[in-house]
Amino acid sequence: MRLMALLFTAILTASPAPAQQPQPSAAPESPSGEQDKTRSQESKTQGPGLPVSVAKIREALEQTPAISLRALDERPTFRIQILERQKIEELLSSLNFKAGPVPAGGVYMYEQQRQMFNPVDHPLMQPFAAFSQGELLTILIENLVGKYLGGKAMDAISKSERARAEAAAREEVRVAVDQYCNAQPNAGAGIQICSSVGR
Fold first, then answer.
1. Burial group, residue 177, by CB count within 10 angstroms (0-12, 13-18, 19+)
2. Long-range CB contacts for residues 175-180, cutoff 8 Å, separation at least 24
3. Element (H, E) at 144
4. How far does the chain reach from its first CA to its final CA, in angstroms?
5. What angle do CA 194, 197, 199 make, to 5 degrees?
6. Count of C-beta atoms within a 10 Å radius of residue 119
7. Whole-prediction pTM value?
8. What pLDDT, in 10s, does the model give residues 140-152?
């Protein structure tokens, strides 16, 4: 970053190289007085070796500026307008809550289904006829049994499994203590754990 700033400063402070004047082509020789007049006119309009016209710069400076200086003291006026609430209200006003739920496939598909497959001739082709009455009754009973009796049966099974696991763990600990005590001299006499476990 410093190198860029240094390079930029060097470019700005460097003196511009004078523009090279094009060499006149091999033109027919004219009197030296005419060539001197054209050169003096060019030097007056362009200045000594400058690539721009001084006369054009003077004309631009004589024109009045587009921005008046009187406006500098005036305070600017800023306005803020929030339109989010309007957008939300417009969105809510466009919604239609009076139509009610739309059947699957839309209203027109439902009407076409109703006309093509009337309920009397094709009772199982109706949109809500996935199951017959006997099948619906079976599903209802299975769900009720699963909800009310299934939970109690699972609790009973889990309680019996837990009691069985606790009994197996107690037996395993008792066997391990018996093996430890039998491995000690005098069958573990004087060791508290050996005397507390009933053998």
1. middle
2. none
3. helix 133-183
4. 88
5. 95
6. 11
7. 0.28
8. 898 888 888 887 8
Measure Cα distances from 146 to 49, 140, 141, 153 in Å: 103, 10, 8, 9
Tens of pLDDT, residue by residue over 34-64, are 555 655 555 555 555 567 788 888 888 888 7
Tell me the chain's radius of gyration from C-alpha atoms.
Answer: 53
SS3 105: coil
Give the span between the Cα atoms of 89 and 105, in whole angstroms.
29
Cα angle, residue 33 at apex, residues 32 and 37 outer, rounded to 5°: 120
| CB 193, CB 177: distance < 8 Å | yes
* Average pLDDT along the chain, 199 residues, taken 10 residues at a time: 76 66 53 56 55 83 73 75 75 79 82 85 73 82 86 85 92 89 83 72
- Contact partners, residue 174, CB within 8 Å, separation at least 6: 197
- What does the alpha-carbon distance between residue 42 and residue 49 come to, in Å, rounded to a whole number? 10
Task: Please say whether the dihedral angle defined by the alpha carbons of residues 180, 185, 190 and 195, taken in this order, is positive or negative.
Answer: positive
